[in-house]
Write a structure and sequence with these properties.
mainly alpha; about 0% strand
Length: about 300
């Protein structure tokens, strides 16, 4: 039981970064913009957050630095694809490549740096309960913040006028423009917020999840977060559940190794990515279902007055 509690706790921890990045990318895509640069955004944010935490000793300032770096890079991406009408796929891939190289350059001096002792969080009373205490109530506050952010996003999208406008821009920007809404500015705001969320996820990985800096440490989590939006059919609650599913698959390899299960390490290491491919294949097998849930203008440029 203790082992299962630790596995559940590790699943929540591992899924948090995917959930935060996933809801950020969902905001982008609900506005009609697809950003394939999530991996690069998260890498730059990871080194920004780690370096800030090293120099200030505050993980929260590190999170702020990660969000700021993600927002700045996302704003540049937004200006290119929304105002200059560059290809969204090509620009996103370029951002991902840039983020990988730029973060490696910035992180050279931080490879050997270590963060101070991590504060152990404990929810009073609930953290002392058997099994569910260590499994659910001894997590970093960011784990609970990710759940709150998911709930807030669902409320925003489906219960507010601003959320309705955002979804309208993603479905039919021409109609939204005809009604007088500033489509390009709304899309840019969505891209910047989404970039900030990816930045928060990247800094969480380097500051809390694996408190160190190593080149390429995001290791494909940005791509998994992108897959989550399709897996979740662009719904916030499903993004959260999918993040925990992939987080559980990631942690399962360590659980099996710790229990002496004799499976090649290489096979266990590829489980998260294999599960991502399998899920996407299953979802894509029903093209009509995907088309019915996907924002109609996703990936399509918008020219005011055209």
């Amino acid at each position: 039981m203790d082992g299962l509690a630790l596995l559940l706790a590790a699943t929540l921890n591992a899924g948090t970064a995917l959930a935060i990045a996933g809801i950020g990318l969902l905001i982008n895509e609900r506005a009609g913009v697809i950003n394939l640069g999530a991996e690069g955004l998260m890498l730059v944010a990871a080194i920004a957050g780690f370096a800030t935490t090293v120099h200030t000793g505050s993980s929260w300032l590190g999170f702020g630095a990660g969000m700021l770096s993600g927002a700045v890079l996302a704003s540049l991406f937004g200006l290119l694809v929304i105002w200059l009408n560059t290809n969204q796929v090509a620009t996103g891939l370029a951002l991902s490549l840039f983020g990988g190289g730029f973060s490696a350059f910035l992180g050279i001096r931080y490879v050997q740096e270590k963060l101070g002792e991590q504060v152990q969080f404990h929810v009073p009373l609930l953290g002392d309960l058997p099994f569910i205490g260590p499994a659910l109530f001894r997590q970093h506050p960011m784990v609970y913040i990710a759940i709150v952010l998911t709930a807030l996003l669902a409320w925003f999208l489906y219960r507010t006028r601003a959320g309705l406008v955002l979804r309208a821009v993603g479905e039919s920007p021409e109609s939204a423009h005809a009604l007088g809404y500033p489509v390009r500015r709304i899309r840019l705001a969505a891209v910047v917020v989404g970039g900030a969320m990816c930045g928060l996820a990247g800094s969480y990985i380097s500051v809390i999840y694996t408190p160190l800096w190593v080149e390429g440490m995001i290791a494909g989590k940005g791509w998994i977060a992108l897959a989550l939006t399709t897996f979740a059919t662009w719904r916030p609650a499903r993004v959260l559940l999918g993040a925990y599913l992939f987080g559980g698959v990631t942690m399962l390899q360590f659980y099996l190794q710790g229990n002496g299960v004799h499976i090649p390490v290489q096979f266990l290491g590829m489980l998260p990515y294999l599960s991502t491919v399998v899920v996407l294949v299953l979802i894509s097998s029903n093209a009509n279902w995907v088309r019915a849930n996907m924002p109609a203008s996703l990936g399509k440029p918008f020219f005011p007055g055209s």
